[in-house]
Amino acid sequence: MESRATAKFMRVSPRKTRLVARNIDGLPVEDAMNLLRFTPNKPAGVLYDVLRSALANAQQMPGVDVDAMVVKQVVVNEGPSWKRFLPRAQGRATRIKKRTSHITVILAEGQE
Fold this sequence. Notes:
Elements: E1 2-10, H1 14-24, H2 29-37, H3 42-59, E2 69-78, E3 82-87, E4 93-98, E5 101-109
Helix pairs in contact: 1-3, 2-3
């Protein structure tokens, strides 16, 4: 059985989030949660919340062994960017793109 959770429009850069997501792909859920809990950056906290949500979704399914769940796949897609301007010298302005992410975590029952 598979369980999934999605968080959309999260205010974290997709590029930085993918760096953290690669670390938990294929790990048992308990190990992935420990890794994310002690990773000191913002994407780790967001991924931790999505992973907890996927685990809670798995607990709602009958006949699923939550202790044997493994992170099957983590997908981080780019969401819309917020466009902002930063004032610069001599009346100029520079564009800033505040990027957002769509994060999907898929859990599956597997071998540890």
